[in-house]
Amino acid sequence: MGKRFVQKEFAKSPAYRRILSGIEQARHCPFCPENFKYHQRSILRRSGGWLATENSWPYRGTRVHCLLISERHRERFGELTLQDFAAIRQLTQWLIRRYRIAGGGLALRFGDPRFTGATVRHLHFQLIQPARSQRTGRAATVNFPIG
Fold it and tell me: How do beta strands 43-47 and 124-130 pair?
């Protein structure tokens, strides 16, 4: 079958699973610039070889769910440089200001999706702020699966 760029079995919805099935058949990485046609949100900003965008398929319970995606295909943590982390920091700070994020999480999965639970192998960070209940004021629990 060749290299797998996506893991459709980890999709959180039938609609997303259908998209991933098409990507799997095409046998290319959906986050590489030449294939970035499946994503349904606009690129908000670029910095140092990374881009920021809203997630097309946000997790349940999020107020903000953005992706920071490397413009170069990478799958391993060891491929990241200090310049990458500087770009990620700059984009994250910009998103925090833009969306007025009072608190949240920045997560990265890397390597074999059988261990990570990721749907796309291409390195990308996820910036998540949970939604808050109008009634209780408490933040929702957002399930960010690993494994």
Answer: unpaired
